[in-house]
Amino acid sequence: MNSAIGSSDALKDVKYEIRGQLAHRAIELEKRGYEIISLNIGNPGLYGFRTPETMRLAMIENLSLAEPYSHQKGIFPAREAVVMQQQNRGISGISAEEVFIGNGVSELIDLTLRALLNRGDEVLVPSPDYPLWSAAVTLNGGTPRYYDCLPENEFMPDPEAIEALVGPKTRAIVIINPNNPTGAVYPREVLEAIVAVAERHGLLVMADEIYDQMVYDDAAFVPLATLVNDGVCLTYSGLSKVYRACGYRVGWCVFSGDLERARSYVHGMELLAALRLCSNVPGQWAVQTALGGFQSIGELVVAGGRLHQQRQVIIDRVEQSPYLHLVAPKGAMYAFVRLDKRFEGSLDDRRFALELLETMHVLVAPGSSFNTPYTDHFRITTLPDTETLHTVFDRIDSLLDQHR
After folding, report:
1. Is there a domain that residue 4 lies in?
2. Contacting residues for 91 by C-beta, under 8 A, at least 6 apart
3. Are 183 and 335 in contact (CB under 8 A)?
4. From residue 217, how far is each of 184, 310, 312 by CA, in Å?
5. CA-based nearest residue to 331, from 160, 193, 177
6. How far apart are CA 57 and CA 40, in angstroms?
7. Is residue 369 within 8 Å of residue 18, measured between CB atoms?
8. Which residues lie closer than 8 Å to 164 by C-beta, 6 or more apart?
9. Which of these, 4, 172, 229, 334, has the minimum number of CB atoms within 10 Å of its CB?
10. Which helix (H) or strand (E) element contains residue 252?
11. In the predicted model, what is the mean pLDDT of the chain?
């Protein structure tokens, strides 16, 4: 008798519920004819946000050059464009040799952690986090240790609490800024204090900055690499969000700081990059145009811009609801909404998300999917048009009316 073929033990502590059971249930409901409003993923193209035409043309015009493999780190024009962007932000001492192009930031998170970690090593990760970070640490033999970014502190990290978690096996600190899922944008003084912790303990700084130009009102984005002098910083960004080109699968990571300390680590990254040959080549030809051209994201995030307006609708509807609370997002494309305390003990985030899907046909991500110790939040994307968002909150209030 043949035994069942099981999955790897390495997967038992890995979860990515943004595309998990609720998303599978939503697909089942759609197959039965229901129209589902999906707010679980920040996917601009699904909501009418087009990739800038100049980027599309750059890719098309260079298709004949995209048929062979490229260098394992990526094509030179794309890497050089990233260098120029970093230099314009005040980050010096880097060249195209310190830039790796990957199949989105997702692949680069996995590769950089694989090149870094030995079994049992620890990485400090925010809670809430983007769950790929926790999954990639675990899959590469490490252990995520969470530093709290609490809602009562407007989801800001506490540098002293971070330092208290540092142990003999700690290798790196992950900072997601602007933050997914909370929309928090960290002020300079908080980032300086975190960098000081990293430099005191010789830790690698891993700066996930995929939403770097997506900030609202008076929020200011501070590139973390500009603050790292005596340590090593990895900066991650790409075309997916700011440039609305998720399907191109183009991301990059940049090594900066005390690069002599990172020489062996960079060689390890080169080996892993070579083993996968190269990343998607056609999309790389859009990078130079994206970074060097007009930054259309600016029109979307200022007052009157579509992203700003949709964010404001969410802020207003939460404020009007007796059942919901929100720390207004200052960046990114998400809102991390809290259920009122009256539902404590009777309606946690997972039950709420399931009932909302089954009865109101709205798909959201439970807050605990982002590795929180509390179960009273849910994340939605701010990408749908204002009419759709009003419909969503009408349905949410209707469901919560039944539970009050």
Report:
1. no
2. 223, 225, 226, 235, 254, 256
3. yes
4. 12, 14, 11
5. 177
6. 30
7. yes
8. none
9. 4
10. strand 251-257
11. 94
Tell whether omega for the bond before 178 is within 30 degrees of 0, i.e. cis.
yes
Element (H, E) at 402: helix 386-403
Domain boundary residue among 264, 292, 320? 292
Amino acid at 226: T
Q: Give the model confidence (pLDDT) of 79-91 as tens digits.
A: 999 999 999 999 9
Q: Which residues contact 345 (CB under 8 A, 6 or more apart)?
A: none
Q: Which of 8-17, 95-104, 322-331 has the lowest mean pLDDT?
A: 8-17
How far apart CA 10 and CA 98 sit, in angstroms, is 31
Q: Which pLDDT belongs to residue 75?
A: 96
**What number is the average pLDDT over the span 135-152?**
95
Residue-wise pLDDT tens digits, 222-269:
999 999 989 999 999 999 999 999 999 999 999 999 999 999 999 999
Residue for token pair 């800001």:
156
Check whether residue 45 and residue 62 sit in a common domain: no
231 token code pair = 């340590």
- C-alpha pair distances (Å), 202 with each of 10, 118, 167, 267, 349: 28, 16, 11, 19, 38
DSSP-assigned states of every residue in 270-320: HHHHHHT----HHHHTTHHHHHHS--THHHHHSTTSHHHHHHHHHHHHHHH
Q: Which of 193, 212, 252, 258 is nearest to 231 (CA)?
A: 258
DSSP letters spanning 103-149:
SHHHHHHHHHHHHHPPTT-EEEEEES--HHHHHHHHHTT-EEEEEE-
* CATH number of the domain residue 101 falls in: 3.40.640.10
Strand pairing report for 143-148 and 122-127: parallel
The Cβ of residue 270 has, within 10 Å, a number of other Cβ atoms equal to 15
Q: Which two tokens stand for residue 303?
A: 């007052």
Tokens of 60: 């098309």
Q: How many domains does the chain have?
A: 2
The Cα–Cα gap between 100 and 136 comes to 18
In a domain, 103, yes or no: yes
Query: Residue 371 is part of which domain span?
Result: 14-50+299-403
In angstroms, the CA 157 to CA 243 distance is 28
